[in-house]
Amino acid sequence: MSLNEKLDRIARRHEELGVLLSAGGGSDDFVRMSREYAELGPIVEAIDALRAARGEVEDLTQLAASADDPDMRALAEEELHALRARLPDLEHAVKLLLLPKDAADAKNAILEIRAGTGGDEAALFAADLLRMYQRYADGRKWTFDVLEHGETGIGGIKEVAVEIAGRDVFARLKFESGVHRVQRIPTTESGGRIHTSAATVAVLPEAEEVDVALEDKDLRIDPYRSQGAGGQHVNTTDSAVRVTHLPTGIVAACQDEKSQHKNKAKAMKMLRARIYEEERRRLIDERAAARKGQVGSGDRSERIRTYNFPQGRVTDHRINLTLHKLDRVMEGELDDLIDALVAEDQAARLADVA
Fold first, then answer.
1. CA 280 to chain CA centroid, nearest Å
2. Which of 36, 204, 240, 295 lies at 20 to 30 Å from 317 by C-alpha?
3. Angle, helices 335-350/70-98, rounded to nearest 10 degrees
4. Residue 286's pLDDT is what?
5. How far is CA 290 from the centre of its chain?
6. How far apart are CA 162 and CA 206, in angstroms?
7. How many CA atoms within 13 Å lie on the side-chain side of 164?
8. Coil, strand, or helix at residue 286?
9. Coil, strand or helix: which one is 251?
């Protein structure tokens, strides 16, 4: 199907829905049609703008060719030149709106960070990443709620899970999944040698109960005693909870709260997100198997970014982008990186739009 045929079909469907909705009603179909009508609205507006511009190009072309008055012809040619320059942007806007939407983009996210290779320095870097994402979230007015937090004795983080809620959270953060590598001189290094260590980041779309139905028979729930940094007991009761999804083997645990009930609720939230992401990732991989040039698979084992402190630069290896403002990136100024990743992903997916 050609692009023009797709645009015709969308415009007809929007008009058809408008007629049906004008008849009123309160059925489930009415709600579904209202949602579809609203979703098609911005696309139809972009289509109308594109077609209006194309119509003006035709009119101005005829006027420039037939006008007897030199001034009128010159004015038509000037307007025609400006309008033709706008057409690619209008066409690009329509194609972007036609891209298949990731159903998870509008969801909140569960952010998980784990210290990788590098011992204490990796744990300290994991803590730096946590602060970086928290500052980014603060700047976008997102909420940032720690679900699970495992510290080391020197201010580092073994692992942490955070719920981030707000507008377009997953859409903005989904390309952060992977291995983040740091190159810097540790504070404990007396010889001034640069060490390389790493932390793993995973960003999961938060799943609602309607997204992932968990049956009691598929769950094993194990209470255990909370442990703090260095093996110190947080409390003396078995308030921590580990939940295992037996069909998949996926596990989530929480010990941050004193209440076993609250720990179970947080563990279930993380478990649901992990199961949802597993299925979502499988479907994405199937659809993308034939397409090359993806921004990244989101695989946690994929090295995606290097933070080089001696040179003050950060490099995203998926899109070969290097920024020489590492200090500001670590303060949460991530939009330049994220915008570039989103643009690269859109460019790759535009190839699927005729």
1. 13
2. 204
3. 90
4. 63
5. 22
6. 11
7. 30
8. helix
9. strand
DSSP state of 259: -
Tokens found for residue 285: 């991989």
Beta strand residue intervals within the chain, DSSP E: 109-115, 143-151, 157-165, 178-184, 195-205, 219-224, 240-245, 250-254, 303-308, 313-316, 321-323
Q: Which of 258, 250, 20, 249 has its CA nearest to residue 112?
A: 250
Residue with tokens 């008009």: 15
How does DSSP assign 182-244, residue by residue?
EEE--TT-TT---EEEEEEEEEEEPPPTTTS---GGGEEEEEE--B-GGG-BS-SS--EEEEE
* Location of structure tokens 């194309």: 54
* Two structure tokens written together for 117: 């290779």
Paired tokens of 15: 């008009």
pLDDT of residue 163: 93
Strand order in the sheet with 195-205: 143-151, 157-165, 109-115, 195-205, 178-184, 303-308, 313-316, 321-323
Angle at Cα 30 formed by Cα 29 and Cα 35, nearest 5°? 95
The conformation of residue 100, written as its DSSP 8-state character, comes to: P
Consecutive 10-residue averages of pLDDT for the chain (354 residues)? 84 92 75 86 93 94 88 90 93 86 85 92 95 97 90 87 94 94 84 89 84 85 71 58 91 86 89 87 63 48 90 96 97 97 87 58
Residue position matching structure tokens 């295992």: 244
The single-letter code of the amino acid at 75 is L
Backbone angles phi, psi at 334, to 5 degrees: -100, -5
272/188 Cα distance (integer angstroms): 40
Q: How many H-runs (helices) and E-runs (strands) does the chain carry?
A: 8, 11
What pairing do the DSSP bridges indicate for beta strands 178-184 and 303-308?
parallel
Rg of the chain's alpha carbons, rounded to an integer? 26
Q: pLDDT value at position 278?
A: 85
Closest by Cα among 178, 126, 147 to 271: 147
